[in-house]
Specification:
With 200 residues, the chain is mainly α. It has a single domain, classed as Vanadium-containing Chloroperoxidase, domain 2, CATH 1.10.606.20. It has 8 helices and 2 strands. The relative contact order is 0.15.
């Protein structure tokens, strides 16, 4: 400690004085702990009929397959307008690419790796946890399709939410992974939709 008249200043590194790194880590640790608490709260809510639904949605949402199928079916049913097919497909593909690329930057361990007592209810992915690719493609697909087919928006958004929540419920992602994925997908879809409008 340095004393300047009546003013005393503690120096980082003295016993009992948090370092700047410690001050930075404290909020991050709290966020991590909150993430894990939310994960456990959702993961422990098990009901067999709901488990079957969550498995179905997570399988359908793999690599954005659900959204590609819906876009293709709607394209065939509503007049073969090419932008109505390309905008969702590009949104989903771009969101998946961004999410998968971001995983390499963070390399976060999956919940069942961090806690060996977690037993996932579906085949475990080999990629890292942050952000969720399923959630990214779900947000991109649901939002871009909702913009093109507003009448279907409630069903599309519900389906997107179920795909995202299934990743926590089944034990393969933390809530913040899912949130980050949804933000990624929403941002990607917004950009693609804006470009599509500009080029129309």
């Amino acid at each position: 400690m340095l004393a300047f008249g009546s003013l005393s200043v503690r120096i980082s590194g003295e016993p009992g004085v948090p370092s700047p790194e410690h001050n930075l880590k404290n909020p991050l640790i709290k966020i991590r702990d909150l993430d894990r608490t939310l994960f456990l709260a959702i993961f422990r809510l098990k009901w067999e009929p709901l488990t079957a639904v969550m498995r179905a949605f997570t399988i359908a949402g793999s690599a954005g397959a659900l959204w590609g199928f819906i876009a293709g079916a709607a394209f065939l049913a509503t007049g073969l307008e090419l932008p109505n097919l390309l905008v969702p497909w590009i949104s989903v593909a771009a969101a998946w690419t961004v999410a998968e690329g971001t995983k390499y930057l963070f390399n976060r361990a999956r919940p069942y790796i961090s806690d060996t007592e977690i037993a996932p209810l579906i085949k475990t992915p080999s990629s890292s946890s942050f952000p969720s690719g399923h959630s990214a493609t779900a947000a991109a697909g649901a939002l871009s399709l909702s913009a093109i087919y507003p009448a279907l928006a409630p069903a599309l958004l519900l389906a997107g939410l179920l795909v995202a929540l299934s990743r926590i419920y089944l034990g393969v992602h933390y809530p913040f992974d899912v949130f980050a994925g949804m933000v990624t997908g929403a941002a990607t879809a917004t950009v693609v939709l804006a470009v599509g409008v500009a080029l129309a």
